[in-house]
Amino acid sequence: MIIPESSISQRTLFIGDIHGCAREFEQLLSELQFRKSSDLLYLTGDAFTRGPDPAGVWTLIRDTDAKMVLGNHDYRLPDRLRQHMSGTPVSKHWADHLKTLEALAPVADALIPWLESLTLWIDEPDFLLVHAGINPEKGLEGTTTDEFLVIRTWPPVEGIVGPRWHDAYDPTGKLVIFGHDAPGGLVIKRRDDGSPYVIGLDSGCIYGGQLSGYVLEEDRVVQVESSHPRSERPNNH
Predict the structure, then answer these.
(1) What is the pTM of this model?
(2) Please, what are the domains in the chain?
């Protein structure tokens, strides 16, 4: 439930990869006491695919005026939606997303241009929001599209096992908030003074973990438990 508008101090809220879990999204908004009149809501991307209610997620995004960075699952979703709506069979690679495409088809006219307006990063004075991460050696300006969408390990390796990109990130840099890395779970790294410089919010809700949120001004993490059974996370997540 979204709490009615009221005049309170503005907060900056972040929510990790939702993946079609509208029920948990709504629960987390309630736990965060989200107020549309005074709160800014940011999402780490990958809001729709895999989960049971992508259309419900879209309704909540519109209701909250949430901003989002482009996730790897969002990157090709507009083209897949157009393909599905034209009657062209989706590729085998996207066969597991057919239910997502069917659910989103009725809202595609509004959703497709919104998805195509998303950026790979949102850079504000107090934080940098990305989906997967940044190149820890070259920084924001030197990060490729592929790295924004899928980077995990550093140095890069095949698969998902290895030191993470944020292990090599300079703690004196701007706070980076990201998602994507469900196998890595919730990540909070702090400087010597206790302030965070890396926050990872993909805690695997769609795989039976949690949906995680973060309140910037309060330096506070809020989580709700998933309603899904525990399952393995695919290597291409």
Answers:
(1) 0.93
(2) 11-225 (3.60.21.10)
